Amino acid sequence: MASSFGKMFNVTTFGESHGKELGVVVEGVPAGLGVSETDISFELKFRKTGNYLVSGRREDDLPKIVSGTFNGKTTGAPLTIIFENVDAISSLYGEVSHKPRPGHADLAYIKRYGLENWDYRGGGRASARETISRVAAGAVAKKLLMLFPTYVAGYLKGIGPKQTSGDVEAGDIQESKKYQTRSLDSSTDREFTELILDAMKKGDSYGGLVEAVAINPPEGLGEPVFDKLKADLAKAILSIPAVTGFEYGLGFDASRMKGSDASDEICLKADRSLGLKKNLSGGMLGGISTGETLRIRCSFKPTSSIRIPSRTIDLSNMQPTEISVTGRHDPVVAVRGVSVVEAMIAIVLADHSMRSGKIPVVKLEKEQSELIERRWKEYIARCS
Ligand SMILES: Cc1cc2nc3c(=O)[nH]c(=O)nc-3n(C[C@H](O)[C@H](O)[C@H](O)COP(=O)(O)O)c2cc1C
User: Which contacts (CB < 8 Å, 24+ apart) does range 194-203 have?
Assistant: First the structure.
């Protein structure tokens, strides 16, 4: 079961929903980067369970750095971060052990690994509990990106019937950290909250649309043919559980447009550097970053675990049956999905920045390390 992503900033996640521990090994982090459990916790709190709008599973989500740092800084050795599972209740999954849940990975895991090897407790390895490891690695990547500085931010653009429209200024997107639904203003936050509560009451769920940006990305990132930046971003985002679609720039709207409307006009910016007037291509041309804001969107499907009964097969007698999934679930996974999207973008950008020689691969100079620390503190203050 391959579980690694990235070539130079390489992330390997491990662990299952109801295992003892889970975590991540990040290889390739240059020496000299300040990384603390507090830094990682800052990003993790936006993916945390336990409030009334998301899954009620009460995990501490306390990161433990067990290798790769000395005196608070990376040494260049593999950085390992682990988490304990403290609130897994496997008894909630008795029925699931013989009734694969529609929309989950259950059926596919049984087909691939065999029923006898299937860890049905909380979705096992397919569980989105795994995404805690991505957000932890993403925190390290976000910190490295402070070198430029590049800021990655995402927000929830729509839930089920309530989709917001229009372009959002990239700089405003960090505001989403202030709202529990990860929307961008208090009235949308209220509307999203009502929809989520309504879905919960009815035992149903909604899908969601997430938009994310990377502000001030380095230009020239991405290999020109197969390892294009857009291809690696698509892979990273589509690897997130429940993501069903990915687009960047004009995205699927491009198929309905005329060339004259979709022309990404080239201009001279105030500082006389070459730029794009409208940046319709989401910060990438030919799969290579142009230095303009990178912008992607992705859709999350409605949470599959719903109380409303769905048809399945009882594996104990191979008869058609129903399952109503109770227990603790996110009614709209896209809410917590926002931080996972941010993390995966940061990981791809850190990886490609190292591959392009824009982030040192062995060690950071003292001044670089200090600059990163200063900018990280400012970022935390702004987003708190
Ligand atoms: C942050 C996050 C939380 C999730 N929480 C749940 C959940 O509580 N219940 C559920 O049915 N699916 C949840 N999912 C989605 C499932 O993990 C996912 O649909 C399942 O593993 C099947 O994978 P697929 O949808 O990519 O095919 C969550 C996804 C994310 C990103």
Answer: 195/159, 195/160, 195/161, 195/162, 195/332, 196/53, 196/159, 196/331, 196/332, 196/335, 197/53, 199/160, 199/331, 199/332, 200/331, 202/308, 203/306, 203/307, 203/308, 203/324
The residue whose two tokens read 């000395």 is 70
Residue nearest to atom 12 of ligand 1 (CA): 303
How far apart are alpha carbons 221 and 229 in whole angstroms? Answer: 7
DSSP bridge pairs for 333: none
Nearest to 27 by CA among 47, 11, 3: 11
Q: Is the pLDDT of residue 167 over 90?
A: no
- How is the chain split into domains, by residue range? 4-383
Ligand 1 site, residue 303, Cβ cutoff 6 A:
yes
The tens digit of pLDDT for each residue in 78-97 reads 999 999 998 777 777 789 89
Quickly count: other Cβ atoms within 10 Å of residue 36's Cβ: 15
Question: DSSP for 105-135?
Answer: SHHHHHHHH-GGG---GGGGGGSGGGHHHHH
Buried b (16+ CB within 10 A) or exposed e, 197-214: eebbeeeebbbbbbbbbb
* Cβ of 304 below 6 Å from ligand 1: yes
Average pLDDT along the chain: 95
Q: In terms of CATH architecture, what is 4-383?
A: 4-Layer Sandwich (3.60)
Taking the centre of ligand 1 as the mean of its atom positions, its distance from the CA of residue 127, in whole angstroms, is 6
Å from CA of 241 to ligand 1 middle: 5
Average pLDDT over residues 68-81: 98
